[in-house]
Write a structure and sequence with these properties.
heterodimer, A: 561 residues, nine-stranded mixed sheet, 16 helices, 25% strand, B: 332 residues, alpha/beta, ten-stranded mixed sheet, 22% strand
Amino acid sequence: MVLKRIELTIFPKGSRRRNKVKKLLIRAKLRSPFVPDDYNTWVQQQKKSIAQRINCANISSDIKISVVIPVYNTPMQYLREMIYSVVGQTYQNWELIIVNSSSDKLIRDKTKNFTAIDTRIRVIDVENKGIANNTNAGIKAASGDYIAFCDHDDVLEPDAFVLVVEKIITEGADIIYTDEDKISDDSKIYFEPFFKPDWSPDLFTHVNYLNHLTVVSKKLVDKTGLIDGSLDGAQDYDFYLKATDAASKISHVSKVMYHWRASRNSTAHDFSSKMNVLDSGVKALTRHFKRKNIDVAVTPRVGAPGFYNLDFKVEKGFSLIIMPMFTGIVDEMIVKKLVTKTDTIHKSSEIISSVAVDSDKNIVVIDSFDNQLDYLRKALDLAKNEDVIIVNRFMIPMEKNWTEALQGYLKLEHVSSVSPMIMRTGNVINSAGMLVDESGNYSHLFEGKVIEHKTYTLYGDLDWNRNVDAFGEGVICTRKKDLTKFIVGLDEYQNLIFEYTKQSNGTNVLNIKSRLCNFGVRHDVGVTSTRLLNDNLFMLHGSFDMKTLETGLINMLREMN
Amino acid sequence: MSMAAKPGVAYIIVSWNNKKLLDECIQSINSQSYNGVQKTVVVDNNSSDGTVDYLLENFPDVNVLPQLNNYGFAKGNNIGISTVLQDKRIDYIVLLNTDARLASNWTSTMINFARSKPLLATAQSITLDYFDHSAIDSTHIYVSQWGQATQGSYGYPIGDHYDVPPTKVFGCNAAAMLISKSFMQAQPFDNLLDETMFMYLEDVDLAMRATLMGWDNYTVPGTRAYHMGSVSSSKKDPSFSMYMTFRNNLGLLIKNLPANLLVKILLSTPKSDYSYLKHLWKLGMRKSALAVIKGRLVSLLYVPINIAKRKRLAKLIDIEPDYLWHLMNRGY
């Protein structure tokens, strides 16, 4: 008690002196560098007693999961934790293949002894030939129906395999991935969870968000082939790119089932310093698009290792339709602004507007129309290009090639529409696309969030290319043939109503490279077909919070009333 | 390791004036669904309430071993173990308290689990409180980072559909515990349990020894045991159990812990003891507080023996001190 008072007098809370001492203690390894926060409290509360409810206790155990762990000079404590987390699975039909590829003789010998822990554990001795070839040795030895790829120093949740097998049985999935979070070196603190969306192919070509834990069916592995040894650093990305193309169903377990050892993310192990990682990822993505015969330049994002920008080579022109929003003079200003700030590289690109402005660009004017719906129909008749961009609100583009970024994604067949990122002044996001939660409530993703140095959120970073459920009505980029399905009619304010119907099977992509600045308040309507928002999160005005016990109770009370 | 199709199981009960409790205890053994070879042994520590006659009359299949003195829990079990291991068919031993009962699928679940685990030393199921099946008595035991032995999940509520994953834990509670013969043969002492401890903390000592040697202790899902708790020794006066706990604690640490962890814990002992004593004094449990002090002082007498045992065990330690510290810190 007295000591505490002395400590607080010499080092007051929040003082610089206190912070300096904290940093010194972290460096001297007398204090953990990981700060526990609300997420950690939430997780630890659920782990208070090791007795927990088993989900799906009556799952048939015919499906065998082979866990492949390539080991390379692992600290024994971490490897033990991983092995016992596999042994401690509630689902019992697994086999564990440890690929003993360490160079350290002591670790090699100790790893061999792990077969004594459980009769389902096998150790395969190989020469170290890189992580891809080491993993392949494990895959070749696997006899299960599904293969789970785990790292040697991470930890699994006890319910991981049960939930994966549940997805296999109920959805017939080929590939299953789960959410993940990070665990500190001393395994005491959990932090930075990543609650992933359901299958998002266009987020996947931006970053390998599947990561861990990913379980792939053995038949799929046989079809796509083993992991490419020439792409070490992004060998799993390349493998998953091929596998997701060939898979018939990709399922998502929306619970944190995998804990990433955080020591790998410390600056000492920053893999962005290794050039081969960046090259491998670029190579993997380039090959992926080459297999689809799509011309695209892949570049790594500066300062963000593991993230890639796609610059599609757009050969077609676009038709930019600027809706009549206000009266003549204001519309003229809007059109002028948009025309000057838009690059039209292709000869066939045109801008269709309701007022004439002086410009050397190709502008088509529609003089007379009854209402917005009439105008739009006339504009679509006049539009020569298949790629159509409609601007329905007063927005100003922030980059001149904003249309190219939008059009590029339309080259992919599975994409049905592309959204730009809508900003407010400053670096404030107005809308990063729209998501719908389980009650059918829509919300603008990341509304009001500031893009600054730290972009981490529970749902991933603020500045990723994502798949979203609906586009905002401000800017719509889609193909002419698809657009006609979206138009419904006019509402009582003579505003256009767009609607998604089940006919729109394609994905909606948010492209962060196309940004527009919004002026004015938006109230957009969207109906969606798939739900991308993670089950653990509820959205309130575009920001996320964990579904905690309290919110569960509140929802229950709401339902009861 | 080769094992018969159905491994043999021996149940060992140590009794001391618990005649009334033995009925249900032995009946829960007899109603096990497991159909491998099973034997029951009751080691009676010189009871004066007619336990031996009662058993000989009512349970002729049980092997009763009457002793001439009260040798305590540890030695009683050791006597039973050495008797039972003469039968080569026995591969597993179950230690069962007189106030503990087993669910009818206990043995078959445990044996089925243990078959795939060559490195299994001890195992237990979730042990519920006998009087309130919605409260846990123990899921495991562990030694905390302050060197104190604790029953895991004691008092936690549990619903019908709750269970554990098959978790490697620090150690198992001897109220209802499975031990593998292979571990008994691998550990360095002639007797499995430490007889100088008499009672209390021998299961913790066993757990520590197994963990240090690189063996595994598990909590197994799918079955239950029921334990009344502290009925064997007198519940009205906790000072005896406190005295024994603190008397055995130092020996436990000295015998087992690697040097750097031992030093770390011993340095923190004065502060934790002081706060515990203050806590007891405030609650008015003066007698218990004095028992704690007496226990600590008496434990110093056993230091030489434990240092000698430490040297014997040190050769078999096969675990990194960091990993042991990790297990002690995580609470299971």
